[in-house]
Design brief:
Structural class of chain A: alpha/beta
Strand order of the largest sheet of chain A: 2-1-11-10-12-13-14-15-16
Oligomer: homodimer
Chain lengths: 548, 548
């Protein structure tokens, strides 16, 4: 009878060039502060970055870059990096961010796999760039994020960013392509197999920016001054590279210096109201403030992500410094924000102490996404706050595949992406990560959280680092084994640790063995390297049979 | 060389069924309060409305409704209306909202033009429905938003909504269609020509909801209790029909009663924190509170739109009741929100009194939209806060055409929609409506704001209503003429009014004639009917020649 009918609304593509265009047009004078490695602060604004981004587009065109080509950057957060970011995206190229803190061989793999012909890097990474050039002949041109006078001495040819774009016109007709076009490429530092690339689209980045601007997410406004600690090479700096310009927030880009004093001074000097960071940086800031009797005059709130934030940090910031610490969860494959631990009405009605239990969780799902907990057979698990399950997620900001088809099909039959995380979801909808799926110990059909045992064991005075892995067991499939690295001068034996754990964990969670090692292996991203631990335990067998 | 490359993100269509699905899944128990015409309050929640919406989809299918078909509703804000809303959208039908407060012949024209075969109406509109049925034989079925026991007595066949959906299953597979599919139809009560229909898409409504959830727009959160005064038949109730469920806000739907006492009681009884309303309702609320020494215990903020909000209302709510009144601007064709008068950083730094000048403007543009001021030749005009120009707007939430092609091409060559408003934009980006384009008086190549003269004239003690229209003038093209309706007992002559205006407006803005009338004609939406005034002035000629 009646045929399908389309709406009669304007067909405007959601491309991210519109975001920096908005910032330049409506918040043109709003400042962007960059600090370089020497501590020098340079000040620019959205209008200038917008002009420079257009110069970048022209410079890329002059270099023969076409829409769809990848452009690699390896830089800290800076205004020049921001101009490169939007200049590449605006002309339809794909910005491939490299993390200079990875091992050289990882960077080399990732850079080669991404296939960029042009690399824009921070001068501080010049030596690393030299190594990459030897391994990746495909890189034809190197630009350093600096002025001519700050160029590093290199044995290879390179141009200063300011010169590279200096003569280019500040006009360029951006956009005009489909919003599903690729916009950015970011690799996950895979703990199994090779790193895999997530290829963001303009659409996914744009929708993610809108989703995260809500009051119940990052809640950025034009009145905010945002200190962007989380690096631009980590999943779009949690999208703040888009959300801050979208509202015209002042942007403070701290470069490479993450020590407590540097971060504190930047917050105070620039009147920072909001920041996004990982717990370790916030821990360093806390220690500096506590040691130097410092206080904040403008900071209101911080989103913490990347790993679970310890209660001590949340409490200290709230009670001693009047700053609200909110946890977020996400991963490269989720753009990244998936959940934010902002109170809903019923949690907000609870006491401060009761609310803390929710602040320690990774939070509530953003509207637009779907999330489910499943067992190994894909069956739905209850949202009871205690049943752990594989966390699966779906939505327009979630990856459907990896660049180059690596890893094959990563979606289940309903289109959900397997996060590789194990978590619980409570009756208020708060999700809490309990483990990585590959680290969870599967014992007698039940799941034991390696992270939970580790966190408790690390509460023992003598323990510096604790790591739990599952070891094959004939009857229970797997049983947990705890490795402990003692603090220098710390003294404890297996019986001490076992006694300490008793009553704090379920009886059947008690590790079947406790092994003391001189050094627990740590991977390049600062996390315990369980692959290395498992390799070290090859041939190891459990010392005794457990009876339950 | 390289071909176009798409991102590898999930292809999830932005269809609005996802919004109520999210609310049901993650905020299922969050309350929805509906008040009927008798003042009775019924309580339900998102999970129930979601189930009922699925029943509506099944009932529509059973009635032979297919995707793309229009479904008419003529109802006040209620949970049943909300279920019909999402039930129609979820199955791909197009909800066509009729405004029961329009003249019967207008409703008839609009209903006929929309082409619905099925009408769901409030029982209070039964008589009107009877008239419509006589004029529109295409309407095959009538349902009333009520239970069987509240059915109105009618000479035509009709079903109670609760019975209509009662036996239907609460399962229905929603979505599965393109996000550009039509989702809703809403007519503008055109002051020239026939009403014209805006055909929203799922995509435009979804993006609009995300845009308006920002801190710098409506800033709704899961902790809010929203009193939705603005009707669902007015441009998606400013999108709150989508944005409130998206975050799981408690929703209070006031039905038909808009008097100050009823609104006040609802706010206090339900703990309302936020409302969206037109100035007249807020004026009535203010008068009630002032007359009865009332105060708010929970209300924090209100978005006012539809027409400019008088300073007295903004000041009274801020200073006497601690409620922040924020103006918004938009129209049916803009989904509707285009600008919101939320302070940016530089305005926020000003004194309360200085900020008031910005609160009186219609505000700053939402990111995602483009806005420009042009003269009659389409040339860009400066953002100096004083040069008035035609306001043009562009973006994914803006109409590109009217339903059925009415009005022809409504976009300029750059794709901007002509709002028909005349406005200024200041250096901070704040837009202020100064007139409707058809009402502005074009005199000697300059534009005189009819609204500004009217507002000043209405400040005169004796003046009840003032209206300014342009009258053809041989030398200046047009000159302003002021019509005054005096208050009962008010006394003033033309010389008094002229003296009152002197010094308050530019000399060349002084009306060439001041005419006293018993009654200035008011249109069905409560605005001065300038068409009728112009018709009444046919044959009128200016009393004297002006020299400048």
């Amino acid at each position: 009878m009646s045929k399908k009918m389309d709406g009669l609304m304007q067909e405007v593509e959601l491309t991210v060039d519109r975001i920096i265009g908005h910032a330049a047009h409506w918040h043109g004078g709003r400042e962007i502060i960059s600090r370089d490695a020497d501590g020098n602060v340079t000040r620019t604004d959205y209008a200038s970055v917008h002009r420079n981004a257009k110069r970048v587009s022209n410079a890329l065109c002059a270099a023969g870059i076409k829409p769809g080509d990848r452009i690699a950057t390896m830089g800290w957060n800076s205004a020049r990096h921001l101009a490169a970011w939007y200049g590449a995206a605006g002309m339809g190229a794909v910005l491939h961010t490299l993390n200079p803190r990875l091992f050289a061989e990882q960077i080399s793999y990732i850079a080669k796999h991404g296939g960029s012909k042009l690399l824009i890097a921070d001068p501080s990474t010049a030596e690393l760039v030299g190594q990459l050039l030897e391994q990746i002949p495909a890189i034809e041109q190197v630009i350093f994020f600096c002025a001519r006078e700050n160029m590093p001495k290199t044995s290879f040819e390179a141009i200063a960013f300011d010169n590279w774009i200096g003569d280019q016109p500040a006009e360029y007709e951006w956009g005009g392509f489909d919003e599903k076009s690729a916009c950015g490429l970011c690799y996950t530092s895979g703990t199994t197999g090779n790193p895999k690339g997530v290829l963001y689209s303009h659409r996914s980045n744009y929708i993610h920016a809108l989703m995260t601007l809500q009051s119940d997410a990052l809640a950025l406004s034009s009145r905010d001054t945002v200190l962007l600690v989380v690096p631009m090479y980590h999943a779009n700096a949690w999208g703040v590279v888009y959300s801050a310009p979208a509202v015209g927030a002042k942007l403070v880009l701290p470069g490479q210096r993450m020590d407590g004093e540097s971060i504190y001074n930047l917050i105070e000097e620039e009147g920072v109201t909001y920041s996004a960071a990982v717990p370790t940086v916030w821990q360093m800031l806390l220690e500096y403030m506590q040691g130097n009797d410092k206080h904040f005059t403008t900071l209101e709130r911080v989103t913490i992500g990347g790993s679970a934030c310890p209660e001590s940090i949340i409490r200290a910031f709230r009670d001693d410094y009047g700053v609200d610490v909110v946890q977020g969860w996400g991963m490269t494959e989720t753009s990244p924000l998936g959940t934010v631990s902002v109170p809903n009405a019923s949690v907000a009605a609870k006491s401060d102490n009761e609310q803390m239990a929710y602040k320690l969780k990774q939070g509530r799902l953003l509207c637009g996404l779907e999330m489910k907990l499943v067992d190994d057979e894909g069956n739905h698990l209850p949202h009871d706050g205690k049943t752990p399950g594989r966390l699966m997620i779906k939505g327009p900001t979630i990856a459907r595949a990896y660049f180059g088809g690596e890893g094959g099909n990563v979606l289940d039959e309903d289109g959900f992406f397997d996060t590789g995380d194990v978590s619980t979801i409570d009756s208020e909808g708060y999700m809490q990560i309990t483990d990585r799926a590959k680290d969870v110990v599967k014992s007698g059909g039940e799941w034991i959280s390696s992270i939970e045992i580790e966190n408790i064991a690390m509460g023992h005075d003598a323990v510096a680092i604790a790591a739990v892995v599952g070891v094959v067991h004939p009857k229970w499939d797997e049983r947990p084994v705890l490795l402990c690295q003692l603090k220098s001068g710390g003294r404890a034996d297996a019986a001490d640790i076992r006694e300490y754990l008793e009553g704090k964990i379920a009886k059947w969670w008690m590790p079947d063995d406790i092994i003391f090692v001189d050094e627990i292996p740590i991977g390049p991203t600062g996390k315990i390297d369980k692959l290395a631990i498992r390799a070290g335990l090859k041939g190891y067998s459990l010392p005794f049979e457990v009876t339950r």
